[in-house]
Amino acid sequence: MADGSAQYTDGPTTLLASINGPIEVKPRDEIPLEAYLEITIRPSAGVTSVREKHLEALLRSAISPLIIRTVHPRTLLQITLQIIQHEQVSVAHTLHTLLASAVVVVVLALVDAGVPMKGMLAAAFVEEANRSAAHVFGYAVTGGGGGPGEGLVFVESDGAFDEKEFVEASEIGRKKCLEVGELMKDWIRGKVGRDMKYRLK
Amino acid sequence: MATAPPPPSNPLSFPPATFQKLAPKTFLERHLQSTPATRPSGRGPDTFRIPSLHTNSLSHAHGSAVVRTGDTAVVCGVRGEVLSLAVGTGGRIVVLRSGEDGRRENEEGEGDEIRERALVVTNLEMGTGCTRDYHPGPPTDFAQAVTARLHRLLLANKLIPSKSLRILDPNTEEIKAYWVLYIDVIVISLDGNVLDAAWASILAALRSTKLPQAYWDQDTEGVVCYPEVSRYKPLGIKGLAFTASFAVIDLGAEKGGKVILSDPDEFEEGVCEERVMVCALEGERVGWIEKGGGVGQVAEVVECVHRATERFKVWEQLFAKVLGSSG
């Protein structure tokens, strides 16, 4: 029984994330003033390879700035992401679409687990009209109580583009992220409403 | 009673090295708050380390390069092996790779063959003792993540023309076999920013790679290479692409805000969580941007793009000097 979990389907992609934490940490991983973050990605078929390790590193850089790790020092926060289905629409951008969905599902699972966070992160996949470039943007969408507010947390861009095109794409990405953020907030409101129904007599 | 040591004159003072160990973040912050802002290594925030390059120092590889930036040094070796597409010839074991059935070659479909048939194999190895924090054992998550990024960069930039990896039947012009490039990067010494050095070494090694001229021999049903070194051919790498990595530290709104450090060393990488990586292409274009680890703004990334474009020129000059225009 995990402390928090979320399942997310976006078109051909279905992902399941589970969170355990704070739990006991192995002595070698213990950090004196912070919680240790362990991210594991399991592919839908086969064993974990270099590709999954790369994705883990990207996911870590996306979500770690929003988790307040100092609240539970000397503990472990375990994030496991199971890829249930990820159809390859185009081979070149398979990692980008997966990454955008992975960020959303992991953030929802973190909220479900009650992990202390500065805000939520929403991610969106943006592709240039002529397919010359593909971007994933991650924006912090909520920042209640002195949080970071809105801000660009994560970028993964690939293709051939120049500075102007990048700035334009980032603006589209920001708008998309805000939309995704509103959806995420709605889902959480619905979930909390159902969970707390017994109290609303 | 006279043997008691004298009390220290100032109990709150200790040498810089101790300060660095005790409070690494404060140590870096104090350096950056001085005027002009200076990093512990003596560089300015936007100063990269000066790179050096040597090629073809390994005699048994088809191409190789050594790149050094500061105390980070890497060696890259490229070796070509023949991958036969014919099934079951002469009782040999033939590896068939995915996506190979009935694909017609076209001149425009560059990169796809290389990706689908896995014609480049990248690997990065951290030599034992290359850094204080690196212990012998299986490849760490960090090494694996860097390998995956190098491989993605190589495929995304489409630098290798698939034409130069094809081995044809001279009579029918049919593809009978491929060259597979095994690209191995070994980190000799690691002082931060391994990606930039590793990527430059791969590019230099590929540019210096010369493969034997090979053809399909119908009589023996096998690939034959001409032994003469004079008939070795370069790969014909198209264009240039160079990565530039940055670390970002937030000093707080009243103390100067965010500072972007170009080409971070080991100590700075340990302190700064936020990272940006930009791959600059020719003509001030960008091939790749990666950012993570902190909440920032688009302006920050744009600043990194500018610095990466400047850095591109430095690498370009070095490559032109060492490899010449032929490269």
How would you summarize the topology of this molecule?
The complex is a heterodimer of chains A (201) and B (327).
Chain A: E1 4-10, E2 13-23, E3 36-42, H1 50-63, E4 76-86, H2 94-113, E5 121-127, E6 133-140, E7 151-161, H3 163-195
Parallel strand pairs in A: 3-4
Antiparallel strand pairs in A: 1-2, 2-4, 5-6, 6-7
Chain B: H1 16-22, H2 24-33, E1 51-55, E2 63-69, E3 72-84, H3 112-116, E4 120-126, H4 141-157, E5 166-168, E6 175-189, H5 194-208, E7 210-211, E8 214-217, E9 222-225, E10 233-234, E11 241-250, E12 258-262, H6 266-271, E13 274-281, E14 286-292, H7 298-323
Parallel strand pairs in B: 4-6
Antiparallel strand pairs in B: 1-2, 2-3, 3-6, 5-6, 7-10, 8-9, 11-12, 11-13, 13-14
> What would the average pLDDT of chain A be, to the nearest integer?
89
Series of H and E elements of chain A: EEEHEHEEEH
> How many helices of chain B does DSSP assign?
7
Q: How helical, in percent, are the residues of chain A?
A: 25-40%
Give the C-level CATH assignment of chain B: Alpha Beta
